[in-house]
Amino acid sequence: MRSPSVNISSRAPSLAGAPSVQSVGRTSPSPIVRIDPNLAGRGVSGMGNNLRRTSNCTAAERDNGECSSQMMSNSQKHKANIQAGRSKVLDASLASRATTRQIVAEIDAALSDAQADALARRHGLRRIESRTFELIGATLGLFRVVSGKSVEEASREFAQDGSVRSAQPNVQYRLQEQNAATRGSDPGKYPEIELHLPQAHTLADGANVTIAVIDSGVDLRHPEFAGVTITSFDALDSKEGPHAHGTGVTGAIVSHVKLMGSAPSAHILAIRAFGTTGKSPESSSYVVLKALDIAAAHGAQIVNMSFAGSKDTLIGRGLSALAARNIVAVAAAGNAGPKSPALYPAADPNVIAVSATDAQDRLFAASNRGNHIAVAAPGVDIFLPAPDDKYQITSGTSFSSAFVSGVAALLLQRNPTLKPEGVRALLMKTARDLGAPGIDDQFGAGEADAFAAVSAVSAPATPVAVVPDRPATRELSEAPAVDDGHAGPTMAADKSVTGRSRADTDQTRP
Length: 510
Known about the structure:
The chain is of the alpha/beta class.
Protein backbone atom coordinates (compact mmCIF):
# COMPACT_ATOMS: atom_id res chain seq x y z
CA MET A 1 0.00 0.00 0.00
CA ARG A 2 1.36 3.36 -1.00
CA SER A 3 2.05 5.89 1.66
CA PRO A 4 -0.64 8.60 1.97
CA SER A 5 -0.06 11.96 0.36
CA VAL A 6 -2.97 14.31 1.10
CA ASN A 7 -2.70 16.27 4.31
CA ILE A 8 -5.82 17.46 6.12
CA SER A 9 -4.36 20.15 8.32
CA SER A 10 -5.77 20.96 11.73
CA ARG A 11 -7.99 24.00 12.03
CA ALA A 12 -9.48 25.63 15.07
CA PRO A 13 -11.17 28.85 13.89
CA SER A 14 -11.83 31.63 16.33
CA LEU A 15 -15.54 31.96 16.93
CA ALA A 16 -15.62 35.38 18.51
CA GLY A 17 -19.05 36.42 19.63
CA ALA A 18 -20.37 32.88 19.80
CA PRO A 19 -22.29 31.95 22.96
CA SER A 20 -20.86 29.60 25.52
CA VAL A 21 -21.74 26.03 24.64
CA GLN A 22 -21.89 22.74 26.42
CA SER A 23 -19.27 20.38 25.06
CA VAL A 24 -20.32 16.89 24.07
CA GLY A 25 -17.02 15.89 22.51
CA ARG A 26 -13.47 15.35 23.62
CA THR A 27 -11.28 18.41 23.91
CA SER A 28 -8.19 16.78 22.45
CA PRO A 29 -7.95 16.78 18.65
CA SER A 30 -7.80 13.50 16.79
CA PRO A 31 -4.72 12.60 14.73
CA ILE A 32 -4.13 14.29 11.38
CA VAL A 33 -5.27 12.03 8.57
CA ARG A 34 -3.30 11.71 5.36
CA ILE A 35 -4.91 10.21 2.30
CA ASP A 36 -3.56 9.10 -1.04
CA PRO A 37 -6.25 10.19 -3.56
CA ASN A 38 -5.27 7.26 -5.78
CA LEU A 39 -6.36 4.91 -2.98
CA ALA A 40 -9.37 6.84 -1.75
CA GLY A 41 -11.71 5.56 -4.45
CA ARG A 42 -11.02 1.85 -3.99
CA GLY A 43 -13.84 1.16 -1.59
CA VAL A 44 -11.50 -0.14 1.10
CA SER A 45 -11.94 0.26 4.84
CA GLY A 46 -9.48 0.38 7.69
CA MET A 47 -6.69 2.05 5.74
CA GLY A 48 -4.90 2.80 8.96
CA ASN A 49 -5.07 5.90 11.14
CA ASN A 50 -8.64 7.19 11.13
CA LEU A 51 -9.74 6.81 7.51
CA ARG A 52 -12.95 4.93 6.87
CA ARG A 53 -14.28 4.37 3.35
CA THR A 54 -18.02 3.73 3.44
CA SER A 55 -19.43 1.00 1.24
CA ASN A 56 -22.97 0.17 0.12
CA CYS A 57 -22.00 -3.01 -1.73
CA THR A 58 -24.16 -6.07 -1.17
CA ALA A 59 -22.84 -9.60 -1.52
CA ALA A 60 -24.73 -9.98 -4.81
CA GLU A 61 -23.19 -6.81 -6.18
CA ARG A 62 -19.72 -8.01 -5.28
CA ASP A 63 -20.41 -11.33 -6.98
CA ASN A 64 -21.59 -9.55 -10.10
CA GLY A 65 -18.56 -7.28 -10.18
CA GLU A 66 -20.63 -4.13 -9.65
CA CYS A 67 -18.47 -2.83 -6.81
CA SER A 68 -15.06 -1.26 -7.24
CA SER A 69 -11.98 -3.40 -6.67
CA GLN A 70 -8.25 -3.01 -6.95
CA MET A 71 -8.31 -4.86 -10.28
CA MET A 72 -10.61 -2.30 -11.91
CA SER A 73 -9.51 0.91 -13.59
CA ASN A 74 -10.57 4.24 -12.12
CA SER A 75 -13.05 4.68 -14.99
CA GLN A 76 -14.53 1.23 -14.47
CA LYS A 77 -14.83 1.80 -10.73
CA HIS A 78 -16.50 5.14 -11.27
CA LYS A 79 -19.09 3.74 -13.67
CA ALA A 80 -19.76 0.72 -11.47
CA ASN A 81 -20.27 2.85 -8.36
CA ILE A 82 -22.64 5.21 -10.17
CA GLN A 83 -24.69 2.40 -11.69
CA ALA A 84 -24.91 0.41 -8.46
CA GLY A 85 -25.85 3.47 -6.42
CA ARG A 86 -28.50 4.67 -8.87
CA SER A 87 -30.21 1.30 -9.15
CA LYS A 88 -30.31 0.89 -5.38
CA VAL A 89 -31.83 4.29 -4.65
CA LEU A 90 -34.30 4.10 -7.54
CA ASP A 91 -35.32 0.67 -6.30
CA ALA A 92 -35.76 2.21 -2.86
CA SER A 93 -38.11 4.88 -4.22
CA LEU A 94 -40.23 2.31 -6.04
CA ALA A 95 -40.30 -0.10 -3.11
CA SER A 96 -41.40 2.67 -0.78
CA ARG A 97 -44.93 2.51 -2.20
CA ALA A 98 -45.49 -0.82 -0.43
CA THR A 99 -42.77 -1.06 2.17
CA THR A 100 -44.05 -3.16 5.02
CA ARG A 101 -47.49 -4.40 6.02
CA GLN A 102 -48.05 -1.27 8.06
CA ILE A 103 -50.66 1.48 7.93
CA VAL A 104 -50.56 4.94 9.47
CA ALA A 105 -54.01 6.32 10.27
CA GLU A 106 -55.39 9.43 11.90
CA ILE A 107 -57.87 8.20 14.47
CA ASP A 108 -60.32 9.78 16.86
CA ALA A 109 -58.33 11.35 19.70
CA ALA A 110 -60.99 10.33 22.19
CA LEU A 111 -60.35 6.60 21.67
CA SER A 112 -58.67 4.78 24.55
CA ASP A 113 -55.96 2.23 23.81
CA ALA A 114 -58.46 -0.58 24.32
CA GLN A 115 -60.91 1.03 21.93
CA ALA A 116 -58.17 1.62 19.35
CA ASP A 117 -57.18 -2.04 19.65
CA ALA A 118 -60.77 -3.13 19.12
CA LEU A 119 -61.05 -0.82 16.12
CA ALA A 120 -57.96 -2.41 14.61
CA ARG A 121 -59.20 -5.96 15.14
CA ARG A 122 -62.47 -5.21 13.33
CA HIS A 123 -60.46 -4.37 10.22
CA GLY A 124 -57.87 -7.15 10.32
CA LEU A 125 -55.21 -4.94 11.85
CA ARG A 126 -53.06 -4.92 14.98
CA ARG A 127 -52.22 -1.62 16.67
CA ILE A 128 -48.49 -1.18 17.21
CA GLU A 129 -48.68 2.23 18.87
CA SER A 130 -50.54 5.52 18.75
CA ARG A 131 -49.77 9.03 19.94
CA THR A 132 -50.70 12.67 19.52
CA PHE A 133 -48.60 14.68 17.07
CA GLU A 134 -48.66 18.30 18.18
CA LEU A 135 -47.11 19.50 14.92
CA ILE A 136 -50.18 18.56 12.87
CA GLY A 137 -52.69 18.52 15.72
CA ALA A 138 -53.71 14.90 15.19
CA THR A 139 -53.67 11.51 16.88
CA LEU A 140 -52.01 8.92 14.67
CA GLY A 141 -51.86 5.18 15.06
CA LEU A 142 -49.40 2.75 13.53
CA PHE A 143 -51.09 -0.53 12.56
CA ARG A 144 -49.94 -3.82 11.05
CA VAL A 145 -52.09 -5.63 8.49
CA VAL A 146 -52.62 -9.15 9.85
CA SER A 147 -55.31 -10.21 7.38
CA GLY A 148 -54.70 -11.38 3.83
CA LYS A 149 -55.53 -7.97 2.37
CA SER A 150 -52.94 -5.80 0.65
CA VAL A 151 -51.75 -2.69 2.47
CA GLU A 152 -53.51 -0.48 -0.08
CA GLU A 153 -56.81 -2.37 0.21
CA ALA A 154 -56.64 -2.40 4.00
CA SER A 155 -55.90 1.34 4.05
CA ARG A 156 -58.88 2.15 1.86
CA GLU A 157 -61.21 0.02 3.96
CA PHE A 158 -59.90 1.36 7.27
CA ALA A 159 -60.36 4.97 6.12
CA GLN A 160 -64.11 4.31 5.71
CA ASP A 161 -64.59 3.73 9.45
CA GLY A 162 -66.23 6.63 11.29
CA SER A 163 -63.42 6.67 13.89
CA VAL A 164 -60.74 7.03 11.20
CA ARG A 165 -60.09 10.34 9.43
CA SER A 166 -57.41 9.09 7.01
CA ALA A 167 -55.26 6.03 6.40
CA GLN A 168 -52.26 5.33 4.19
CA PRO A 169 -49.37 2.87 3.82
CA ASN A 170 -46.39 3.56 6.08
CA VAL A 171 -44.08 4.89 3.33
CA GLN A 172 -40.40 4.01 3.48
CA TYR A 173 -37.49 6.46 3.27
CA ARG A 174 -33.77 5.81 2.79
CA LEU A 175 -30.70 7.91 3.37
CA GLN A 176 -29.09 9.40 0.26
CA GLU A 177 -25.44 8.38 0.32
CA GLN A 178 -23.35 6.78 -2.39
CA ASN A 179 -19.65 6.28 -2.96
CA ALA A 180 -17.92 7.70 -6.02
CA ALA A 181 -14.35 7.42 -7.29
CA THR A 182 -12.01 10.27 -6.43
CA ARG A 183 -10.78 12.14 -9.47
CA GLY A 184 -7.69 13.80 -8.10
CA SER A 185 -9.52 16.39 -5.98
CA ASP A 186 -8.68 17.27 -2.40
CA PRO A 187 -11.76 16.03 -0.54
CA GLY A 188 -10.84 17.88 2.63
CA LYS A 189 -10.79 21.34 1.10
CA TYR A 190 -12.99 21.96 -1.89
CA PRO A 191 -16.44 22.32 -0.23
CA GLU A 192 -15.29 25.21 1.92
CA ILE A 193 -13.67 26.86 -1.10
CA GLU A 194 -16.66 26.34 -3.39
CA LEU A 195 -19.10 27.63 -0.78
CA HIS A 196 -16.78 30.49 0.30
CA LEU A 197 -17.12 29.45 3.92
CA PRO A 198 -14.04 31.20 5.37
CA GLN A 199 -15.31 34.52 4.04
CA ALA A 200 -18.88 33.84 5.16
CA HIS A 201 -17.72 33.00 8.67
CA THR A 202 -16.33 36.50 9.08
CA LEU A 203 -19.97 37.58 9.10
CA ALA A 204 -21.81 34.65 10.69
CA ASP A 205 -21.04 31.17 12.03
CA GLY A 206 -24.52 29.85 12.87
CA ALA A 207 -24.50 30.87 16.54
CA ASN A 208 -27.91 30.86 18.23
CA VAL A 209 -29.52 28.95 15.37
CA THR A 210 -30.94 25.45 15.93
CA ILE A 211 -30.78 22.83 13.16
CA ALA A 212 -32.58 19.52 13.47
CA VAL A 213 -30.74 16.68 11.72
CA ILE A 214 -33.22 13.86 11.08
CA ASP A 215 -30.94 10.96 10.27
CA SER A 216 -29.18 7.90 11.64
CA GLY A 217 -27.26 8.04 14.93
CA VAL A 218 -24.55 10.66 15.48
CA ASP A 219 -21.25 10.15 17.29
CA LEU A 220 -21.66 13.00 19.78
CA ARG A 221 -18.11 12.60 21.07
CA HIS A 222 -16.27 13.00 17.77
CA PRO A 223 -13.40 15.52 18.10
CA GLU A 224 -14.85 17.62 15.26
CA PHE A 225 -17.84 18.36 17.51
CA ALA A 226 -15.88 19.51 20.55
CA GLY A 227 -17.60 22.51 22.09
CA VAL A 228 -20.68 22.18 19.88
CA THR A 229 -24.08 21.89 21.55
CA ILE A 230 -25.71 18.70 20.26
CA THR A 231 -28.93 17.49 21.85
CA SER A 232 -29.86 13.96 20.83
CA PHE A 233 -33.27 12.30 20.54
CA ASP A 234 -34.24 8.82 19.39
CA ALA A 235 -37.52 8.57 17.48
CA LEU A 236 -36.89 4.83 17.14
CA ASP A 237 -36.41 4.15 20.87
CA SER A 238 -33.47 2.02 19.76
CA LYS A 239 -30.20 0.99 21.35
CA GLU A 240 -28.15 1.35 18.19
CA GLY A 241 -24.84 3.14 18.32
CA PRO A 242 -23.73 6.04 16.10
CA HIS A 243 -23.73 5.63 12.33
CA ALA A 244 -21.51 7.00 9.55
CA HIS A 245 -24.29 8.79 7.69
CA GLY A 246 -25.71 10.77 10.60
CA THR A 247 -22.21 11.59 11.84
CA GLY A 248 -21.14 12.75 8.38
CA VAL A 249 -24.22 14.89 7.79
CA THR A 250 -23.76 16.56 11.18
CA GLY A 251 -20.08 17.04 10.36
CA ALA A 252 -20.88 18.89 7.14
CA ILE A 253 -22.67 21.44 9.31
CA VAL A 254 -20.61 21.87 12.51
CA SER A 255 -17.10 20.44 11.95
CA HIS A 256 -14.45 22.93 13.04
CA VAL A 257 -11.17 21.18 13.91
CA LYS A 258 -9.59 19.61 10.81
CA LEU A 259 -12.62 20.32 8.65
CA MET A 260 -14.87 23.33 8.17
CA GLY A 261 -18.61 22.87 8.39
CA SER A 262 -20.96 25.44 6.96
CA ALA A 263 -22.29 26.57 10.39
CA PRO A 264 -19.75 25.52 13.05
CA SER A 265 -21.51 27.28 15.94
CA ALA A 266 -25.04 26.08 15.25
CA HIS A 267 -26.96 24.09 17.85
CA ILE A 268 -27.80 20.60 16.57
CA LEU A 269 -30.85 18.53 17.43
CA ALA A 270 -29.62 15.08 16.41
CA ILE A 271 -32.82 13.06 15.93
CA ARG A 272 -32.30 9.38 15.17
CA ALA A 273 -35.07 8.27 12.82
CA PHE A 274 -33.18 5.77 10.64
CA GLY A 275 -32.39 2.29 11.88
CA THR A 276 -29.43 0.35 10.53
CA THR A 277 -30.54 -3.23 11.07
CA GLY A 278 -31.36 -3.84 7.37
CA LYS A 279 -29.26 -3.51 4.21
CA SER A 280 -29.25 0.26 4.52
CA PRO A 281 -30.61 2.75 7.05
CA GLU A 282 -34.37 3.03 6.66
CA SER A 283 -37.25 4.91 8.20
CA SER A 284 -40.96 5.40 7.56
CA SER A 285 -43.75 7.98 7.46
CA TYR A 286 -44.67 7.43 11.10
CA VAL A 287 -41.12 7.72 12.43
CA VAL A 288 -40.16 10.66 10.21
CA LEU A 289 -43.28 12.54 11.29
CA LYS A 290 -42.39 11.74 14.89
CA ALA A 291 -38.95 13.26 14.24
CA LEU A 292 -40.51 16.38 12.68
CA ASP A 293 -42.73 16.66 15.74
CA ILE A 294 -39.69 16.47 18.03
CA ALA A 295 -37.84 19.06 15.95
CA ALA A 296 -40.68 21.57 16.12
CA ALA A 297 -41.26 20.99 19.83
CA HIS A 298 -37.61 21.69 20.66
CA GLY A 299 -37.17 24.93 18.79
CA ALA A 300 -35.68 23.85 15.45
CA GLN A 301 -35.38 26.76 13.03
CA ILE A 302 -34.07 24.55 10.23
CA VAL A 303 -34.73 20.86 9.55
CA ASN A 304 -32.24 18.91 7.43
CA MET A 305 -33.63 15.82 5.69
CA SER A 306 -30.92 13.84 3.89
CA PHE A 307 -33.28 11.06 2.82
CA ALA A 308 -35.73 10.31 0.03
CA GLY A 309 -38.74 8.22 -0.91
CA SER A 310 -42.01 8.51 -2.80
CA LYS A 311 -44.69 11.14 -2.29
CA ASP A 312 -46.31 10.92 1.12
CA THR A 313 -49.48 12.77 2.08
CA LEU A 314 -48.77 12.48 5.79
CA ILE A 315 -45.27 13.91 5.56
CA GLY A 316 -46.65 16.62 3.31
CA ARG A 317 -48.92 17.65 6.18
CA GLY A 318 -45.94 17.81 8.48
CA LEU A 319 -43.94 19.94 6.06
CA SER A 320 -46.86 22.34 5.61
CA ALA A 321 -47.03 22.66 9.39
CA LEU A 322 -43.30 23.43 9.55
CA ALA A 323 -43.71 26.16 6.95
CA ALA A 324 -46.63 27.63 8.91
CA ARG A 325 -44.29 27.90 11.89
CA ASN A 326 -41.59 29.52 9.72
CA ILE A 327 -39.26 26.54 10.09
CA VAL A 328 -36.94 26.14 7.09
CA ALA A 329 -36.92 22.64 5.54
CA VAL A 330 -33.95 21.47 3.43
CA ALA A 331 -33.70 18.07 1.73
CA ALA A 332 -31.45 15.98 -0.48
CA ALA A 333 -32.67 15.81 -4.09
CA GLY A 334 -31.85 12.09 -4.14
CA ASN A 335 -29.27 9.84 -5.80
CA ALA A 336 -31.48 7.99 -8.27
CA GLY A 337 -30.18 9.70 -11.41
CA PRO A 338 -31.74 11.49 -14.39
CA LYS A 339 -34.44 8.90 -15.14
CA SER A 340 -35.86 8.84 -11.63
CA PRO A 341 -39.18 10.46 -10.81
CA ALA A 342 -39.01 13.29 -8.32
CA LEU A 343 -38.26 12.05 -4.82
CA TYR A 344 -39.70 13.39 -1.59
CA PRO A 345 -39.49 15.29 0.69
CA ALA A 346 -37.22 17.30 -1.65
CA ALA A 347 -39.98 17.71 -4.26
CA ASP A 348 -42.44 19.09 -1.72
CA PRO A 349 -43.12 22.81 -2.41
CA ASN A 350 -42.29 23.69 1.21
CA VAL A 351 -38.79 22.23 0.95
CA ILE A 352 -35.50 23.60 -0.41
CA ALA A 353 -34.22 20.79 -2.66
CA VAL A 354 -30.45 20.45 -3.12
CA SER A 355 -28.56 18.58 -5.84
CA ALA A 356 -24.85 17.67 -5.68
CA THR A 357 -21.74 18.91 -7.49
CA ASP A 358 -18.13 17.76 -7.57
CA ALA A 359 -14.88 19.69 -7.24
CA GLN A 360 -15.02 20.64 -10.93
CA ASP A 361 -18.56 22.06 -10.62
CA ARG A 362 -20.04 19.13 -12.51
CA LEU A 363 -23.33 17.61 -11.51
CA PHE A 364 -23.05 14.39 -9.52
CA ALA A 365 -24.04 11.76 -12.09
CA ALA A 366 -26.41 10.05 -9.65
CA SER A 367 -28.09 13.26 -8.52
CA ASN A 368 -31.80 13.60 -9.17
CA ARG A 369 -32.98 16.31 -11.53
CA GLY A 370 -36.19 18.30 -11.69
CA ASN A 371 -37.73 21.76 -11.75
CA HIS A 372 -38.03 21.57 -7.97
CA ILE A 373 -34.24 21.82 -7.48
CA ALA A 374 -33.46 25.13 -5.74
CA VAL A 375 -29.65 25.06 -5.55
CA ALA A 376 -26.68 22.71 -5.72
CA ALA A 377 -23.79 22.22 -3.29
CA PRO A 378 -20.66 20.03 -3.01
CA GLY A 379 -21.54 16.37 -2.54
CA VAL A 380 -18.93 14.22 -4.30
CA ASP A 381 -15.95 12.68 -2.48
CA ILE A 382 -16.56 14.70 0.66
CA PHE A 383 -14.22 14.22 3.62
CA LEU A 384 -16.33 14.03 6.78
CA PRO A 385 -16.31 12.69 10.35
CA ALA A 386 -17.23 9.05 11.01
CA PRO A 387 -17.92 7.23 14.30
CA ASP A 388 -15.14 6.31 16.72
CA ASP A 389 -12.98 9.36 15.97
CA LYS A 390 -12.62 8.28 12.34
CA TYR A 391 -13.15 10.06 9.03
CA GLN A 392 -14.74 8.96 5.78
CA ILE A 393 -14.77 9.90 2.11
CA THR A 394 -18.29 9.66 0.79
CA SER A 395 -20.68 11.11 -1.78
CA GLY A 396 -24.35 11.91 -2.10
CA THR A 397 -26.95 14.65 -2.14
CA SER A 398 -27.25 13.97 1.61
CA PHE A 399 -24.15 16.04 2.25
CA SER A 400 -25.07 18.77 -0.23
CA SER A 401 -28.29 19.22 1.71
CA ALA A 402 -26.39 19.43 5.00
CA PHE A 403 -24.05 22.13 3.68
CA VAL A 404 -27.03 24.20 2.54
CA SER A 405 -28.79 23.73 5.89
CA GLY A 406 -25.71 25.27 7.48
CA VAL A 407 -25.73 28.18 5.04
CA ALA A 408 -29.39 28.75 5.91
CA ALA A 409 -28.31 28.97 9.56
CA LEU A 410 -25.88 31.75 8.69
CA LEU A 411 -28.73 33.69 7.09
CA LEU A 412 -30.99 33.23 10.12
CA GLN A 413 -28.22 34.33 12.45
CA ARG A 414 -27.92 37.57 10.49
CA ASN A 415 -31.66 38.07 10.29
CA PRO A 416 -33.74 35.85 12.62
CA THR A 417 -36.97 37.24 11.13
CA LEU A 418 -36.36 35.59 7.76
CA LYS A 419 -39.17 33.32 6.64
CA PRO A 420 -38.59 30.05 4.72
CA GLU A 421 -39.47 31.66 1.39
CA GLY A 422 -37.01 34.46 2.14
CA VAL A 423 -34.23 31.95 2.86
CA ARG A 424 -34.97 30.12 -0.38
CA ALA A 425 -34.96 33.36 -2.36
CA LEU A 426 -31.64 34.48 -0.87
CA LEU A 427 -29.98 31.15 -1.60
CA MET A 428 -31.20 31.16 -5.19
CA LYS A 429 -30.61 34.88 -5.82
CA THR A 430 -26.98 34.66 -4.73
CA ALA A 431 -26.13 31.22 -6.17
CA ARG A 432 -23.31 30.93 -8.71
CA ASP A 433 -24.85 29.95 -12.02
CA LEU A 434 -23.79 26.55 -13.38
CA GLY A 435 -24.90 24.59 -16.42
CA ALA A 436 -27.31 26.20 -18.86
CA PRO A 437 -27.78 29.94 -18.20
CA GLY A 438 -30.57 30.61 -15.74
CA ILE A 439 -32.48 28.19 -13.54
CA ASP A 440 -32.33 24.60 -14.76
CA ASP A 441 -33.38 21.16 -13.56
CA GLN A 442 -29.87 20.06 -12.59
CA PHE A 443 -28.36 22.86 -10.51
CA GLY A 444 -31.48 24.91 -9.86
CA ALA A 445 -30.29 28.51 -9.59
CA GLY A 446 -26.67 27.30 -9.32
CA GLU A 447 -24.19 26.40 -6.61
CA ALA A 448 -24.89 27.94 -3.22
CA ASP A 449 -22.54 30.75 -2.22
CA ALA A 450 -22.47 31.24 1.55
CA PHE A 451 -20.56 34.53 1.49
CA ALA A 452 -22.76 36.12 -1.18
CA ALA A 453 -25.91 34.98 0.60
CA VAL A 454 -24.83 36.19 4.04
CA SER A 455 -23.58 39.48 2.58
CA ALA A 456 -27.01 40.08 1.07
CA VAL A 457 -28.74 39.92 4.46
CA SER A 458 -29.11 43.05 6.57
CA ALA A 459 -26.54 42.80 9.36
CA PRO A 460 -27.77 42.63 12.98
CA ALA A 461 -26.99 45.41 15.45
CA THR A 462 -24.05 43.43 16.87
CA PRO A 463 -22.64 41.20 14.13
CA VAL A 464 -20.70 38.06 14.96
CA ALA A 465 -17.07 38.34 13.91
CA VAL A 466 -15.16 35.20 13.02
CA VAL A 467 -11.60 35.28 11.76
CA PRO A 468 -10.82 32.58 9.18
CA ASP A 469 -7.59 30.66 9.70
CA ARG A 470 -6.37 31.19 6.14
CA PRO A 471 -6.92 33.79 3.40
CA ALA A 472 -9.58 33.47 0.76
CA THR A 473 -8.61 31.38 -2.24
CA ARG A 474 -11.10 32.87 -4.70
CA GLU A 475 -11.69 36.49 -5.56
CA LEU A 476 -15.21 37.62 -4.73
CA SER A 477 -17.19 40.52 -6.08
CA GLU A 478 -19.70 42.48 -4.04
CA ALA A 479 -22.88 40.51 -3.32
CA PRO A 480 -26.20 41.85 -4.66
CA ALA A 481 -28.79 43.41 -2.43
CA VAL A 482 -31.81 41.21 -1.78
CA ASP A 483 -35.15 41.99 -0.17
CA ASP A 484 -34.64 39.33 2.48
CA GLY A 485 -37.52 40.09 4.79
CA HIS A 486 -40.40 39.02 2.60
CA ALA A 487 -38.71 37.67 -0.49
CA GLY A 488 -40.84 35.36 -2.60
CA PRO A 489 -39.78 32.43 -4.77
CA THR A 490 -40.19 34.51 -7.95
CA MET A 491 -37.04 36.44 -7.06
CA ALA A 492 -35.05 33.31 -7.77
CA ALA A 493 -35.21 33.90 -11.52
CA ASP A 494 -32.43 36.50 -11.27
CA LYS A 495 -28.84 35.32 -11.17
CA SER A 496 -25.99 36.11 -8.82
CA VAL A 497 -23.25 38.52 -9.85
CA THR A 498 -20.78 36.91 -7.47
CA GLY A 499 -19.48 34.27 -9.85
CA ARG A 500 -19.02 33.71 -13.55
CA SER A 501 -21.92 32.09 -15.36
CA ARG A 502 -20.70 29.34 -17.63
CA ALA A 503 -21.99 26.39 -19.51
CA ASP A 504 -21.20 23.09 -17.88
CA THR A 505 -19.69 21.49 -20.96
CA ASP A 506 -17.89 18.75 -19.07
CA GLN A 507 -20.69 17.39 -16.94
CA THR A 508 -20.43 13.82 -15.80
CA ARG A 509 -23.10 11.78 -17.54
CA PRO A 510 -24.25 8.32 -16.45
